[in-house]
Amino acid sequence: MPTTIYRFIVLGLTILAVAVPLSLVIYQAFLTAPFFDPSAKFSFGAFSFVFADDDFWQAFRTTIIVAAGMAAIAVPLGALLAFVMVRTDIPGKHILEPMILIPIFVSAVVVAFGYVVAIGPVGIFSTLAKDVLGFVPWNLYSMTSLVIIAGLTHVPHVYLYSAAALRGLGTDLEEAARISGANPLRVALHVSLPMIMPAILFAGVLVFFLGFELFGLPLVLGDPQDVLVLSTYLYKLTNKLGVPSYQLMAVVVVVIIAITAPLVFMQRLLLRQAQRYVSVRGKGQKSQPLRLHGWRWIALALVVVWLAFTVAVPLSGIALRSFVVTWGEGVKLLDVLTLDHYRELLDYPNVIRGIVNTLGIGVIGGAAAVICYAAIAVAIHRWNSGWTRVVDYIVMVPRAMPGLVAGLALLWVFLFVPFLAPLKSTMFSIWLAYSIVWLAYGMRLISGTLLQVGPELEEAARVAGASDLRAKRDVTVPLIKYGMLASWLLIFLIFVREYSTGIYLLGPGTEVIGSLLVSLWGTGAVDLVSALSVVNVVMIGAGLAVAIRLGVRLHG
Length: 556
Prior knowledge:
With 556 residues, the chain is an all-alpha fold. Helix content is 71%, strand content 0%.
């Protein structure tokens, strides 16, 4: 197959996979009824209904507040954490770094459940606090708690980009500041962090965008106080009229995309500007870390406290809850220990199927997704054409759709296209939704690996008589196999933790752990939720252990 034909086939399929769901959502928003209803007509009625709904505007305002609060907490803490980890002599760096990234890979819905059973009104730690203090000194079900938890659990996102930028930053100016007598905090605030400001702004826009994607935390923590954000408003809109209100849901989706799409493309512009502020000049010698002296132990303690709150508290809470019959005031731990919740999992075929499907979508689906990402990346690699820029922007479009939105859009595609309808009740629908949602991330992983392959190797193959496509197949692809393995491990972690994308695609035979957790929580099955959450965390932990053991770079 000629290279040009291959490129345009890949380009066409990529555009089709992204454009069809988006187009169908926009089309549905301007109808009076679901698109499959023969009586559906063109109308602005759905927009009028949604924009006149007080719940919509409450959800919109709350989303802005939560997103801004998340960014206000995560950006400064993440940037300072990156400086401490990359530039100072804080003890235990090699142990701390993988732990810092755990909140990224653990499902947000698992974290939310963990906080409820740990520090909720009758949570394990709340009960202990009441026994000691006589009262519970916190209120989990409040807007303040939601913003604080969301902000602290998104610190690693800012850390990743800030740490990556700091590693590529020359140390000349920092050393000059140290010689002038500046202390480490002053060096951080006046030299290092201003030099990586584009990367910090990039991360800040990302966190603000993720505030619009937030679903698990507000669904679990906001529901008791009727705190609505756009994603939970969309989720609850399904039954607002007592019938499928697809046109109303489509309007909310259009609103979310209209807000998040500019944020995604703003990130791209910020990334382009990053190089203007980065200095890699220097003497080529390894710089000495900034000495914190006695403050190094205080810095370590602060990092440990943050890890304890964002990782240890929710995960230990959900784990302990999965091993007890019940919990509350006056309950003694040794009297209520049990393994019955795990045995109970075996009595639910859909739960067992969900566990198997989750492993399958992570292992097999992750590998298939990486192959697709590699096919796209190889097609546009070193292609001097305007189509390359088209692909760059196309793969970013799904990132503007939160997982819940993408899953809903894919559901409508399977209902709208007759020959795809039979695939709706198969794992292919879940895999396709996951692969499209994480298209930009997967492409970035593969493209970064491809950039490490020198062009002279492909040129040598062409000189020997190989076509351009064969040179890529026989030379380039084999050289990036280890990069593809690393990408597969990271995609495995993402697919296993994913929960919101599969909610609308959940059905007999297509159960996955993430969407099952949301469904079971809605029925009040706390015991099953706890046990299944632990199973999910064990899967993620095993994947992380393998990735670290194989030397996969989890940081930027």
